[in-house]
Design a protein that fits this description.
Layout lengths: L5 E7 L4 E7 L11 H32 L3
Antiparallel strand pairs: 1-2
């Protein structure tokens, strides 16, 4: 079983200790949004990118099929 973990490091000036925290969404260790909201945003971003790619590729495929060889 393979799992992806990201490490975030924080340095406490008072104690002088370096602390590593590991989480699945390690780039947001103390987030304003909950994990389901962040996953929803990631899904919407992925959907937007997929639609943009399809809007680029589908007309190219259609013009390629319309050309006579």
């Amino acid at each position: 079983m393979c799992s992806v973990r990201l490490l975030c490091f924080s340095f406490n000036l008072r104690s002088g200790k370096l602390r590593a925290t590991s989480s699945l969404l390690g780039f947001i260790p103390m987030s304003t949004w909950s994990r389901p909201v962040v996953l929803l945003f990631c899904g919407l971003l992925l959907l937007t990118i997929a639609i943009a790619v399809l809007n680029t590729l589908v007309p190219l495929w259609l013009t390629h099929d319309a050309l006579t060889t």
